[in-house]
Task: inverse folding
DNA sequence: TTAGGGTTAG
């Protein structure tokens, strides 16, 4: 080793920080000890404290600090900044306190760290103390300190204090204005952000890309498509048409305002897309229920030879979960392992969710067990995986584990929804009611519309339909779509057209464009032999211009997706499919199966109705699956609408005849058929 | 010191 002077030793330490290599850092430290006698020059000690702290080796950092006889503001600030950077906010504040105890004055680098730590811990009281110290030290007028202070008040919800700080800062730079706008959006005051933007222009300010992004966020929160469009023009005029950040912001904005086409146009016109552009486009498709398109974007990423990142992987996994796209999901899992992102908490949670929704509960469990970091989303995903399978006992057991895990992660709003839906799917009525009634007291969670909807579903599914209606009437707020939807579902299941009409009428008011509700109601009347009323509902539907969407079912075989619509004969293996359908029909008839023709269009003759239900897309997909998928492998079908009642009972029956596991995911839930049974009890 | 994208329910 050549002789190293103190400057080159310092740069060795710096390179350990910049490459984030603790190995290099330790080696540099060893070299320093070898080369120099103690005590080290203070600037080198500072470098070491900074290095260990940034490398998230807090004990080593503290050790060096305690061995440094002359600790300066730089030494302490290095320690504090590293702690904050690595998310250790409470220790950062402790170090800050110790520094003051040593009578060392914090500087313009220290205060922002202390503010950030207070903000992250949501400690407004501590934040106020730091503020007082900064005022006393005469530092508050510094833009960095002032901005940190302002940000702290925003993040801890003290908006008035924040505004006061903003007004008192003498020289506001663009960062300060941007901070105001983005915090206003984050704090649910998008209108404030827009007003501030106007003020900013009024004082001759020149917006930058962050300003535009903040403005766009405000627009998407307020759903003001027109205002955002105007800003789009403004962006171009200001010469930001090639700024990838602003373009990404526009993709996101249009997507949130449900103008997917504009998002796609912006995306297509970006000459140099970055990771965020791709991710944003995927997210837009996801937010607008176009999972297939999201998958396509992901495949395009791979096609152009880009390495996907953790964001893309978690998004595409959730698309797979929505589509029950188990094959793609599995291959994305393999990819995640290869690019080393499977340890990421978002990716892990998305994997648990994907496997759970695809019904591969063992793999979901395995991923869950192997995850070293779990957050409430991870737990909820696993609980809902059990719920989807109808394993209320497992869901409840996991919930208990969650509560006793380490106290860090507590059940939240969604956890309770998952649990209640697990009870409802498993028919655990009393258990569900107990949980619902105790949620405020035991878990401190105020029951919301989703929880009420679960209880309605719970009661309704157990046949207590009138009870369910009484429960709805006693709700402390207006019942939502999901509440009436759950009641309508129960009425359909137990054939209660009168009550069903009440539920449906409410749904028509709240959700006039959903054709599904009309179809359910008319089928319900048809099932009760009340053809006139059934026809009337269909007529109304036509008059108002509501169309029943086309039903599609799809199935993946060897990475190719095969899509079928009703009466589809276009598949290249159509003759085999028809042969299989005929064979199934014969075997089922011999085994005594009666098709339920209430689900066919009711103005047909009985004979026609039978053939009508026989050629529903899910049955065709199933026939194809039986031909193309080797025995022993489960057949997975996805349908974009609700599975029809006859198909549900037919598939149940078929699963017994052919001795195969059949999994159908429709737009409502998940059905696993095996040995003539289905995981969801009494669906119709 | 400001910002752009992700995971859980129904």
Result:
């Amino acid at each position: 080793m050549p002789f190293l002077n103190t400057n080159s030793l310092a740069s060795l330490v710096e390179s350990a920080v910049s490459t984030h290599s603790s190995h290099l850092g330790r080696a540099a430290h060893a070299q320093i000890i070898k080369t120099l006698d103690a005590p080290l020059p203070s600037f080198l000690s500072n470098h070491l404290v900074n290095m260990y702290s940034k490398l998230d080796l807090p004990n080593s950092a503290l050790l060096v600090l305690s061995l440094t006889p002359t600790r300066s503001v730089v030494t302490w600030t290095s320690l504090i900044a590293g702690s904050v950077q690595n998310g250790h906010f409470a220790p950062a504040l402790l170090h800050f306190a110790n520094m003051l105890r040593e009578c060392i004055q914090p500087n313009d680098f220290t205060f922002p760290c202390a503010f950030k730590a207070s903000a992250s811990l949501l400690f407004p009281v501590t934040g106020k103390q730091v503020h007082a110290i900064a005022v006393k030290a005469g530092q508050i007028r510094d833009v960095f300190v002032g901005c940190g202070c302002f940000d702290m008040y925003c993040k801890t919800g003290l908006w008035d204090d924040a505004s006061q700080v903003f007004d008192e800062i003498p020289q506001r730079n663009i960062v300060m204005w941007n901070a105001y706008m983005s915090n206003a959006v984050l704090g649910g005051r998008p209108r404030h952000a827009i007003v501030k933007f106007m003020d900013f222009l009024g004082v001759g300010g020149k917006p930058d890309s962050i300003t535009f992004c903040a403005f766009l966020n405000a627009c998407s929160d307020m759903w003001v498509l027109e205002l955002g469009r105007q800003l789009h023009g403004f962006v171009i005029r200001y010469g930001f048409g090639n700024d990838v950040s602003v373009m990404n912001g526009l993709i996101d904005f249009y997507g949130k305002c449900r103008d997917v086409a504009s998002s796609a146009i912006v995306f297509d016109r970006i000459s140099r897309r970055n990771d965020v552009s791709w991710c944003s486009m995927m997210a837009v498709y996801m937010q607008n229920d176009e999972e297939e398109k999201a998958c396509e974007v992901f495949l395009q990423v791979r096609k152009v030879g880009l390495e996907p990142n953790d964001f893309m992987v978690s998004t595409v996994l959730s698309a797979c979960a929505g589509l029950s796209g188990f094959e793609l999901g599995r291959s994305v899992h393999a990819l995640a392992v290869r690019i080393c992102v499977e340890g990421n908490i978002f990716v892990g949670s998305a994997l648990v969710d994907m496997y759970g929704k695809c019904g591969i509960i063992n793999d979901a469990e395995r991923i869950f067990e192997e995850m070293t970091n779990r957050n409430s989303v991870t737990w909820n995903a696993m609980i809902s995986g059990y719920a989807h399978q109808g394993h209320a006992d497992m869901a409840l057991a996991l919930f208990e584990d969650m509560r006793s895990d380490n106290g860090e992660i507590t059940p939240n709003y969604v956890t309770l929804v998952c649990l209640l839906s697990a009870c409802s799917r498993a028919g655990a009525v009393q258990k569900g009611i107990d949980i619902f009634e105790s949620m405020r007291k035991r878990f401190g969670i105020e029951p919301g519309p989703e929880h009420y909807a679960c209880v309605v579903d719970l009661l309704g599914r157990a046949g207590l339909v009138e009870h369910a209606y009484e429960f709805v009437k006693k709700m402390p707020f207006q019942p939502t779509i999901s509440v009436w939807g759950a009641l309508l579902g129960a009425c359909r299941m137990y054939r209660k057209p009168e009550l069903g009409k009440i539920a449906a009428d409410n749904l028509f008011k709240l959700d006039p464009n959903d054709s599904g509700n009309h179809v359910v109601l008319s089928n319900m009347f048809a099932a009760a032999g009340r053809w006139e009323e059934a026809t009337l509902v269909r007529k109304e539907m036509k008059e108002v211009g509501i169309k029943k969407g086309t039903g599609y079912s799809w199935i993946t075989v060897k990475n190719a997706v095969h899509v079928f619509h009703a009466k589809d004969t276009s598949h290249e293996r159509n003759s085999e499919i028809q042969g299989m359908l005929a064979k199934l029909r014969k075997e089922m008839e011999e085994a005594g199966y009666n098709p339920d023709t209430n689900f066919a269009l009711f103005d047909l003759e009985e004979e026609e109705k039978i053939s009508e239900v026989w050629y529903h897309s899910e049955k065709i997909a199933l026939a194809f699956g039986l031909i193309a998928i080797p025995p022993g492998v489960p057949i997975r079908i996805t349908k974009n609408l609700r599975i029809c009642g006859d198909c549900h009972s037919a598939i149940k029956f078929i699963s017994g005849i052919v001795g195969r596991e059949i999994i159908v995911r429709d737009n409502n839930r998940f059905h696993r058929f095996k040995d003539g049974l289905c995981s969801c009890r009494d669906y119709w």
Notes: Residues 242 and 358 of chain A are 41 Å apart (CA to CA). Residues 574-590 of chain A form the longest helix (17 residues).
